[in-house]
Amino acid sequence: MKTIAVLSCAILALSGQPRAVNAQxxxxxxxxxxxxxxxxxxxxxxxxxxxMVVSWLTAYEAPTIIRYxxxxxxxxxxxxxxxxxxxxxxxxxxxxxxxxxxxxxKPSTTYYYLIGETTNQDGSASIRYFTTLPxxxxxxxxxxxxxxxxxxxxxxxxxxxxxxxxxxxxAMLLLAGDTSYAxxxxxxxxxxxxxxxxxxxxxxMMTLAGNHEIEFDNTTGVATGFQAYINRYRMPEVRPTxxxxxxxxxxxxxxxxxxxxxxxxxxxxxxxxxxxxVIMLSSYTYINESTPQYNWLVKDLASVNRRKTPWVVVxxxxxxxxxxxxxxxEAQSIAMKAAIEPLLMQYKVNIVIAGHVHAYERTYPxxxxxxxYKDGITYIVAGDAANREGxxxxxxxPIPSWSAVRNGTQYGxxxxxxxxxxxxxxxxxxxxxxxKILRDEIKICNTAKGLPxxxxxxxxxxxxxxxxxxxxxxxxxxxSTEPVEATTATKAVKA
Length: 495
Ligand SMILES: *[C@@H]1O[C@H](CO)[C@@H](O)[C@H](O)[C@H]1NC(C)=O
Ligand SMILES: *[C@@H]1O[C@H](CO)[C@@H](O)[C@H](O)[C@H]1NC(C)=O
Ligand SMILES: *[C@@H]1O[C@H](CO)[C@@H](O)[C@H](O)[C@H]1NC(C)=O
Ligand SMILES: *[C@@H]1O[C@H](CO)[C@@H](O)[C@H](O)[C@H]1NC(C)=O
Ligand SMILES: *[C@@H]1O[C@H](CO)[C@@H](O)[C@H](O)[C@H]1NC(C)=O
Ligand SMILES: [Fe+2]
What we know:
Layout: E1 4-8, E2 11-15, H1 23-30, E3 39-45, E4 52-58, E5 65-69, E6 77-80, E7 84-85, E8 88-89, E9 92-93, E10 96-102, E11 110-115, E12 124-131, E13 143-148, H2 155-166, E14 173-175, H3 187-200, E15 205-207, H4 227-232, E16 242-243, E17 262-263, E18 269-273, E19 276-280, H5 292-303, E20 311-315, H6 331-346, E21 351-354, E22 360-363, E23 366-367, E24 370-371, E25 378-382, E26 403-407, E27 412-418, E28 423-430, E29 438-445, H7 475-478, H8 487-494
Parallel strand pairs: 13-14, 14-15, 19-20, 20-21, 21-25
Antiparallel strand pairs: 1-2, 2-12, 3-4, 4-10, 5-6, 5-11, 7-10, 8-9, 11-12, 13-27, 16-17, 18-19, 22-25, 22-26, 23-24, 27-28, 28-29
This protein binds 2-acetamido-2-deoxy-beta-D-glucopyranose (5 copies) and fe (ii) ion (FE2).
Family: Belongs to the metallophosphoesterase superfamily. Purple acid phosphatase family.
Domain Purple acid phosphatase N-terminal: 39-132
Domain Purple acid phosphatase C-terminal: 376-435
């Protein structure tokens, strides 16, 4: 019988003809969620909508191939890759991590994809989907990007992810570091990516390096760092990873204060999403005026075309403005603030988002500690996605004049809505209330368009729904109870 079954909100199991399963597949199958042992599926966009990298892990050697297409039953394109990595850290060798870029994709288009060469052992095939982002510069009313940091993998993190998943509007998740909280336990990276899969197989997860990504391997005597981060993620790199000076070993798995020469690769990069240019920086890579990171940042900022991407978002792990007692005045924050705050101002960056402190804080528009409602920049700490270390609830007093809102006892996530070229909204939702209740919201106007930052009130009645809903793409199919013929997909699999 050929039927379609819904396994989860983004996976369709199409049954086709059962086929012989070889021994290797059989073994893989025993360890797998889905037939071929495919697990930990996650997406990352390239520099723009036209590339999407699909990453996954198999415990055993398995084909690195994707069949995909714009019609559920016509997966007529194939992509392969030689980017299959294994790495060894803490006496443990990882599974095979496959990274396959799908290139020359069309904007705002839903693609269905099938990982691996074969159907599952029972003859079914797990088909997933994603929707590419709009063309760079395309004006989409109320275009949205979700934000989280320090997410971890607790029951509270699960609530954060559920809220992200229930909201079909955000085009992607911007994750400001401290992702898995593996903390030198390699298995926890595997559980983390499985944990993120329901969201990350459907919408890109763009991340940066937090201190919990450092993970010095103290089992080999050779100082290495960021091994999981380097091997498991594929961000849109400027150049391949460079380690430009030896790592300095520390006994601590996730040192908060640490500078390295981890350059390019997943360390720092930028990309475009419709009308937004997003810059991801590394708080754990040197950023003084003679460093590659600084020089790249200057070049990147100077090259932004504000007619095409009127909005510029910068993300780091360690916050430049923080009035929590946790990580107060840490070396990373001081160094980055000293090096780049004038640059961010000069290039009229609209918002700067960090994590690290397990709390929520928003500043008034500010420059060099002075509130400036005309030209200042709004800084956010959103390290409250709910990892196992809990809350950072103690704040310094008196409240600095630039601190607008702070809360160290709630978990949640943030969302940016870009209404048009002139206005955006920053919003923070706490987990307690479900998706619909805003706990902090502020309108930010675009200084690059000649407006003062603070130029308008939130109009609560105005619709905030995005005209671009990647999480809604398959709704009709997913909710259909009608059996669906699944011939072409099966053919594509056998081809
Ligand atoms: C790693 O392996 C070495 C040698 O087999 C052993 O001495 C060490 O205790 C192991 N370390 C860990 C963290 O398992
Ligand atoms: C998470 O929730 C599950 C199911 O409710 C429960 O069994 C488990 O103990 C919880 N874990 C933690 C760490 O609270
Ligand atoms: C290595 O680091 C881990 C995690 O931080 C720690 O538990 C362990 O004691 C360290 N082992 C050695 C040999 O330093
Ligand atoms: C500046 O960066 C270089 C690495 O490029 C590093 O060696 C040096 O110590 C840094 N200086 C400061 C003041 O951090
Ligand atoms: C954080 O929010 C909770 C719930 O609204 C409130 O009880 C608490 O006082 C807030 N904390 C701060 C520092 O405002
Ligand atoms: Fe951190």
